[in-house]
Amino acid sequence: MQLPGxxxxxxxxxxxxxxxxxxxxxxxxxxxxxxxxxxGAILYIWFPGGALGDALRDVVFGEVDPGGRxxxxxxxxxxxxxxxxxxPGVDGKMHYAEGRQIGYxxxxxxxxxxxFWFGHGMSYSKFEIAGAQVAGDIGEEVVVNATVTNIxxxxxxxxxxxxxxxxxxxxxxxxxxxxxxxAKVELDVGESCPVTISLSPRRFSSWISGAWNIPEGDxxxxxxxxxxxxxxxxxxxx
Length: 238
Hints:
Among the domains are: 7-60, no CATH class; 127-237, Immunoglobulins (Immunoglobulin-like, Sandwich), CATH 2.60.40. The protein has three helices and eleven strands, in the order αββααβββββββββ. A hairpin with a 3-residue loop joins strand 3 and strand 4 (141-150). With 238 residues, the protein is mainly beta.
């Protein structure tokens, strides 16, 4: 997970001279960032293709707001990953002992703090979420409503993220926690926007006894900015 060569050393040396340094990481997977707290900002651009130059310029100079959110959790080190304890296996066979607890589920269930949580992402502006409510029938449709307001100093992008956690007593569903939906809005300064996120029964289903079923019990609905920044807004029952 380390950047090749002496890049970590180079970044720290530059940041020591100028703490406002912006690090642009052009990589296809998570990397360790021992200099994370030394720099002014980190922009993860993955492998964006031929339009990289124009897109990067627009974000760095503030012409557009960085609206992306991480599609996975970034561990602090390779040892902090769900599969680390089981890799490379025994006698050519690897046992996935983490079971259902992969990705952000594993970090939550083991109280392991990742480098960045699934869904993490920042904006040049600030946002407030109010009036969050959950209603509906889990067997037909569950609806999450909230109002997002731009309380910052410029136009920006915000992503409202919804997760569910199973609170019932079905043994196969113990500690089940999952991302179930989101809504992305772009707002001017002071502008508010109602957000509605519809969740189908499939969002709460699991492969149980050879079929997709919704287990009996309560489901807590959480709303926030990432898998590590959430608040429970209500519960529904199946």
